[in-house]
Amino acid sequence: TGTLNFTAGSKVVTGTGTLFTSELSTDAYIKKTTDADTLFVQVLQIISDTQLLLADNYAGTTATGQTANFSSWIRVLGSGTVAVATSVVSITAGNPGTSATYIQKQGDYGPMSFIAYASISQRVANQNVILGFRDLWSGQALRAEFNFSGTVNTQAQCITQSSTAAADTQTTTFTLPGGATTAIAQKYTIDIADEKVVFLVNDTVVATHALHIPGPYDIMDLFMGSINSGGGAGGTILAVDFAQYKDYDRVNI
Q1: Which helix (H) or strand (E) holds 106?
Q2: What is the mean pLDDT of the chain?
Q3: What's the sign of the alpha-carbon dihedral 39, 220, 91, 130?
């Protein structure tokens, strides 16, 4: 609602006729409508209906009287698409060998959990779909994720990682319980504690990792998306009905 004033290199955003206190929250991302998705920046503090503070300096251009977009997730399109309809976000894989398409949300460190109700339209060789936590999308040193690779739609992998060393990665390949397939929406849960990471599908434990896992204060973000590293034309759709993130504050005495 209203119009906004952005200043390049500044964390302060002001508005005219805006309703920041009721329309935004401090975990939202915001940008000018005319700016690229890469310029979304997180809201740090909502001061009033007409003034807010960003977590980082605005990297877009200075402009006044602007319309703006806000989102709970950062969108990285790559060569694919992200669309929302009838309460489902559909993330479509792009062309072979090109950049990944995903959405990302700022996370925290354990204990925390991530739940997603999602389906994958097809399983194609060399197309990977990711649901879960990473410190970075590519070149990551930390992971706790479901990874859907290969062509068998009754199987997936649980992967944890504690450093960039190949030996510090643990992978469990599992069969979905109850004869389920990834083509039909299932509930995927990742619970991260200090000493283990537990993976569940439809509330059934499919893997528990306690060896190569992120540390107690290793910060990771949430990712949902796919990359096509050479598995034919794009078109694989990750459809997510809901994604729930829980962050637990724990006091160790």
Answers
A1: strand 101-108
A2: 92
A3: positive
Q: Is 39 helix (H, G, I), strand (E, B) or coil?
A: helix
Query: Is the separation of the CB atoms in 220 and 160 below 8 Å?
Result: no
Residue with tokens 């590519």: 138
| Residue 166 φ then ψ, to 5° | -60, -30
Dist CA 249 CA 118 (whole Å): 27
Interacting residues of 211 by C-beta distance below 8 A, sequence separation 6+: 170
Average pLDDT over residues 154-169: 96
Q: Measured between alpha carbons, how far is 242 from 60 in angstroms, rounded to an integer?
A: 30
Q: Which pLDDT band, with edges at 50, 70 and 90, does 234 fall under?
A: low
What's the pLDDT tens digit per position in 121-159? Answer: 999 888 899 999 999 999 999 999 999 998 999 999 999
CA distance 82 to 186: 20
- What phi and psi values does residue 155 have, to the nearest 5 degrees? -130, 160
Helix, coil or strand: residue 167: helix
Instruction: Give the Cα separation of 46 and 20 in Å (integer).
Output: 7
Q: Per-residue pLDDT averaged across 54-61, rounded?
A: 93
Amino acid, res. 222: L
Looking up tokens 């992971």 gives 143
Pick left, alpha or beta for residue 127 (phi over 0 → left; psi -120 to 50 → alpha; otherwise beta).
beta
Number of other residues whose CB lies within 10 A of the CB of residue 46: 17
pLDDT in the model for residue 93: 87
Give the predicted TM-score (pTM) of the model.
0.86
